[in-house]
Amino acid sequence: MLTIIKSLNNNIILAKSEKNEELIIFGTGIGFKKKHGDLVDESKATKVFKAEKNMQTRTFLEQISPELLAVTEKIVRLGEDKLQKKLNQSILFSLADHLQFATDEKYHTTNKDNPLQWEIPYLYYEEYEVSKIAVQIIQDDLGYTLPKMEAAFIALHFVNAQIDSSTMEETIQITKLIKNIVKIIQRLFEVNIDKTTINYSRFITHLRYFIARQKMKQRESIQMDEALKKTIEERYMKSYACGLMIKEMVEKEFNWEVTYDEIAFLVIHIERIFQENRS
């Protein structure tokens, strides 16, 4: 059972679990005529969000209206449905906090363009497409017309929520690195990569996990048979050379130690991208 701390509206409550965790609970009628100390069956919840450690949930809720919180939860559900991925619970808090600023006119008059915003639609095509729908939801439900660039920033929140224990700063760093890797491929092969294909989406996903493994120093977590690795090196010589260029770049910039097993798996994706985009 959950113990109500505060009913935010008929469909949103702040509650405490049996483990003494503060949770934001969504559910039709879950907060109707409820008061502090009342018990609620968790089975009536349609969505549960737990704040990250050291986050002051009550202070956060004082700054975010229930209407904005409801729209944020609606966008999170949209993201999970369209992307077919379970998103980290922290997205409710980070995205709601961002939207609180984004719906303030002062934010857009003082906030300068981020050059990365032009790359995000191509690096994270699926997340960006969902985010365009999210911008429309905000307009329909809250009456705020956001600039087009906001879809790019919302997309970053979707990306960040797919990476375990990652901060937005780390997600932006990963995005910049992926951008540089894609540039290496395009320059070496002299191709303009189609960012809307399934193979490209799989490649970006592989890069995310590749970078995550390097950051966590999980060098032995991915291995390949030596004979197969040798075949890949000999058969896809240009893609393998591209993989070595990427290895050199990340080792120099981040002081990572990238294994040749990692490179071999990366080469498979690079070759697919090249074959798909060659003229």
Give a description of the structure.
This protein has 279 residues and is α+β, with helices and mostly antiparallel strands. The chain folds into three domains: 1-53, CAT RNA-binding domain (Transcription Regulation, Sacy, Chain A, Roll); 64-162, Orthogonal Bundle (PTS-regulatory domain, PRD), CATH 1.10.1790; 180-277, PTS-regulatory domain, PRD (Orthogonal Bundle). Helices cover 58% and strands 9% of the residues. It is built from twelve helices and five strands. It has helices at 57-63, 66-83, 91-102, 105-110, 120-123, 125-142, 149-160, 168-189, 198-215, 226-235, 237-254, 260-277; strands spanning 2-9, 12-16, 22-26, 39-40, 47-50. A five-stranded antiparallel beta sheet has the order 4-1-2-3-5. Strand 2 and strand 3 form a beta hairpin. Helix 2 packs antiparallel against helix 6, helix 3 packs antiparallel against helix 7 and helix 9 (198-215) packs antiparallel against helix 12. The N and C termini lie far apart (61 Å). Keywords: Repeat. It comes from Virgibacillus dokdonensis. InterPro entries: BglG_antiterminators, CAT_RNA-bd_dom, CAT_RNA-bd_dom_sf, PRD, PRD_sf. This is PRD domain-containing protein. Residues 63-168, 169-279 form the PRD domain.
Topology of helices and strands:
Layout: E1 2-9, E2 12-16, E3 22-26, E4 39-40, E5 47-50, H1 57-63, H2 66-83, H3 91-102, H4 105-110, H5 120-123, H6 125-142, H7 149-160, H8 168-189, H9 198-215, H10 226-235, H11 237-254, H12 260-277
